[in-house]
Write a structure and sequence with these properties.
By secondary structure, this protein is mainly alpha-helical. The protein contains six helices and two strands. It has one domain: Arc Repressor Mutant, subunit A (Orthogonal Bundle). α4 packs across α6. The longest helix has 17 residues.
Length: 147
């Protein structure tokens, strides 16, 4: 990329940030948002999906935790309702279980199937997750209604 193109890109990026008051935002793919699979989700599953996208930062897909202690601050009032929403998103293949929790008080970790799965490393450089990172989104949700 030429210097002029880099400068133009940088300028357009700054302008875009100005337009949204410097706030972070989440990109929601239109093929997901406009799919029968998405339309079939319950309101609680949609809320969890939106919360998951708010937690996702393009570098942590696979390291998403929905522990009730964290999700209470996001407005979740019932652990049972949260578990039902997680199960529904897993069954619909919008979420992938990336690490089974339990031992040593470790939480389950999840990935959104419509974004690539990241290499989630702990502070010692070891993987936090039990699945392999991907170069592109697995898109497992596309097959949910076929099963």
């Amino acid at each position: 990329m030429s210097y002029a193109k880099k400068q133009a890109y940088k300028k357009s990026k700054l302008k875009a940030q100005e337009e949204i008051n410097g706030a972070k935002f989440s990109m929601f793919r239109h093929d997901v948002f406009n799919s029968k699979e998405y339309y079939s989700l319950s309101p609680i599953a949609v809320k969890l999906l939106v919360d998951a996208m708010a937690i996702y930062n393009r570098l942590n897909n696979g390291d998403l935790s929905f522990a009730f202690s964290i999700m209470k601050d996001r407005g979740w009032k019932s652990e049972t309702t949260l578990r039902k929403a997680i199960k529904e998103l897993l069954d619909a293949n919008f979420l992938i279980l990336s690490r089974q929790g339990g031992r040593n008080n470790r939480p389950n970790l999840y990935a959104l199937s419509f974004y690539k799965i990241n290499d989630c490393l702990n502070k010692d450089g070891f993987s936090k997750i039990d699945i392999k990172p991907t170069k592109k989104a697995p898109d497992d949700w596309k097959n949910a209604l076929k099963n």
